[in-house]
């Protein structure tokens, strides 16, 4: 399943949606060549900022939290609904529960294999889905279906959305704005190690967990604090303690997770205490880590040991460039 839940005294959500094997962005209509695809993307960006009188950035736009997930108002096929913003997903997708609720029909062009938290599934792919957001009216192509429990969440916007702009998310004040790449050279202001993971193009960030530097997936689709692999948890002695367990549920199966509190986490120039950390219980099949390698080369990418999410982000204003791989972390009074 592509939406999974971790149940404890806090309800925690993790969206894990990866296309196999090709990484997707916002896709152009099939009859567009690669040359015209770039024009398609440029047009989409132009439409957005033309809506705001050719400004280099949009006004602050309010968003809502759904269990720690960022959602923005959209219209899909003319129906008021929401889009979930998920930096951890390498595709955009449409919620099959939304389609079923409103009895919508779209052109079905085939199927796509998607990797979820602990399984892989073939999903339908739809074409020409009318979507309106931030004053833009467009049609999205090659949208696979996923399962989001709330049928009012019509679509999921993944990395394809975030790569179109520099995105500034003010978590404490529940607002965001979009900036053109040429308006802000974020590399000049970055204050935390951040890049796109080799071979996957996913946004990863280096933080310190109990004094140990570690690369993690920066995932706005994870409403918990930090999730790490079990063998990494062993390093901190957490396998020798009696930990609270919780059920991590998918479409057809579920897995147990153990939960602890990290005394100290450093995120850029800031230090947090008592951060919630989850890791798979013994025998769990939850997929967390990744590392790029290729048979034709001895060079490997960095090892990504976990996921960082909302419980860390909620304190900060994060300005990110998922096109070039730059990130600035601040608090509201320090925003760029």
Shape: globular
Helix amount, in percent? 10-25%
End-to-end distance, in Å? Answer: 38 Å
The CATH class of the largest domain, by name, is Mainly Beta
- Give Rg in angstroms: 19 Å
The biggest beta sheet reads: 11 strands, mixed
Strand content: 35-45%
Number of helices: 5
Low-confidence stretches: 1-11, 19-43, 291-299
Structural domain count: 2
Report the CATH superfamily of the largest domain: Acid Proteases
Structure description:
- This protein has helices at residues 34-51, 96-101, 159-162, 230-234, 310-313, and strands at 3-7, 11-15, 18-20, 61-62, 64-66, 69-76, 79-85, 93-95, 107-115, 120-127, 129-133, 136-140, 143-146, 153-157, 166-170, 175-179, 194-196, 203-209, 212-218, 226-228, 244-249, 254-267, 270-280, 304-308, 317-321, 326-330.
- The chain has 336 residues and is mainly beta.
- It is globular, with a radius of gyration of 19 Å.
- The chain starts with a strand and ends in a 6-residue tail after the last strand.
- Residues 1-11, 19-43 and 291-299 have low confidence and may be disordered.
- It comes from Pseudoalteromonas luteoviolacea CPMOR-1.
């Amino acid at each position: 399943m592509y939406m999974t839940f971790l149940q404890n005294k806090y309800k925690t959500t993790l969206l894990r949606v990866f296309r196999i094997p090709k990484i997707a962005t916002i896709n152009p209509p099939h009859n567009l060549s690669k040359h015209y695809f770039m024009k398609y993307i440029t047009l989409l960006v132009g439409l957005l900022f033309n809506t705001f009188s050719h400004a280099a950035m949009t006004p602050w736009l309010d968003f809502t939290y759904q269990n720690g997930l960022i959602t923005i108002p959209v219209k899909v096929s003319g129906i008021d609904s929401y889009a979930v913003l998920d930096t951890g997903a390498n595709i955009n997708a449409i919620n099959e529960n939304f389609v079923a609720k409103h009895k919508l029909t779209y052109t079905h062009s085939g199927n796509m294999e998607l990797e979820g938290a602990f399984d892989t599934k073939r999903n339908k792919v739809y074409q020409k889905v009318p979507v309106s957001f931030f004053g833009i009216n467009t049609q999205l192509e090659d949208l696979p279906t996923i399962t989001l429990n709330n049928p009012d969440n019509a679509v999921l916007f993944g990395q394809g959305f975030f790569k179109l702009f520099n995105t500034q998310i003010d978590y404490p004040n529940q607002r965001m704005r979009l900036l053109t790449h040429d308006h802000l050279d974020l590399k000049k202001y970055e204050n935390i190690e951040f890049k796109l993971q080799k071979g996957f193009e996913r946004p990863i960030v280096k933080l310190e967990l109990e004094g140990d530097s570690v690369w993690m997936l920066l995932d706005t689709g994870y409403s918990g604090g930090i999730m790490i692999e079990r063998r990494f948890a062993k390093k901190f002695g957490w396998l020798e303690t009696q930990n609270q367990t919780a059920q991590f549920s998918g479409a057809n199966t579920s897995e147990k997770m153990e939960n602890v509190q990290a005394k100290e986490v450093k995120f850029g120039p800031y230090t947090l205490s008592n951060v919630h950390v989850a890791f798979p219980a013994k025998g769990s099949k939850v997929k967390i880590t990744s590392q790029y390698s290729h048979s034709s080369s001895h060079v490997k990418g960095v090892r990504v040991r976990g996921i960082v999410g909302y419980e860390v982000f909620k304190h900060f204003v994060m300005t990110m460039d998922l096109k070039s791989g730059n990130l600035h972390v601040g608090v509201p009074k320090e925003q760029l």
